[in-house]
Amino acid sequence: MNSQVTTYRELQDLIDTDAAYIGGLIDGEGTITLIRKHKNENRQLSVSISSTEIALLDYVKSVTGVGKITNKRTSKPHHTPSFAYAVYNRQALALLQKILPYLKSYKRQRAEIILRDYVKLTPRNGKYTSEIVAEKIQFENTVLAIKSNS
Predict the structure, then answer these.
(1) Interaxial angle between packed helices 107-117 and 89-99, expressed in degrees from 0 to 180 and rounded to the nearest 10
(2) CA–CA–CA angle 49, 149, 60 (5° rounding)
(3) CA distances (Å), 87 to each of 12, 60, 62, 91, in order?
(4) b/e string for 42-78 if b means 16 or more Cβ within 10 A?
(5) CB-count exposure of residue 14 (10 Å: 0-12, 13-18, 19+)
(6) pLDDT in tens, 114-135
(7) CA distance 41 to 20
(8) What separation in angstroms does the CA of 146 have from each of 64, 74, 111, 112, 126?
(9) Residue 7: its pLDDT value, please?
(10) Using CA atoms, how far apart are residues 6 and 2, in angstroms rounded to an integer?
(11) pTM for the predicted model, two decimal places
């Protein structure tokens, strides 16, 4: 019997300069948020960076060992092609732990709350009690209410 085993990639250990660089990219051109990939799904953690420089995103992907890079649609012919690096859920949590000391914007506050509460409010088996659902909704509202003051 031939059974396939899915390997789950873990974040590679980052040296401080790489963690600081990625933190700066996320502060400047990134997003730390809770998204729904499909309608009626629970929200999941997403950390992403958008850029027109694919080499920059390739670097982030290579030093972290996780995530993926996608093309973003250009809405007009004269727009420069752009790309997005994104990592989700537990891999995103691991990345946030590494870059947290280097975040300087409102995204640091989001990251702190996510690191404190995300795992306890997101059962891996997907089975939510009514209490966890209520707490998770409050958690999501709190995280998403944290916005830039600019």
Answers:
(1) 120
(2) 15
(3) 13, 11, 13, 6
(4) bbbbbbbbebeeeebbebbbebbebbeeeeeeeeeee
(5) buried
(6) 999 999 998 887 788 889 989 9
(7) 33
(8) 26, 29, 10, 11, 26
(9) 66
(10) 13
(11) 0.89
**What pLDDT was estimated at residue 13?**
95
Place of tokens 């709350």: 113
CA atoms within 13 A on the CB side of 15: 4
CA–CA separation, 62 and 57 (whole Å): 9
C-alpha distances in angstroms, 135 versus 44, 52, 120, 131? Answer: 15, 38, 10, 6
**Nearest C-alpha neighbor of 111 from the set 30, 10, 39:** 30
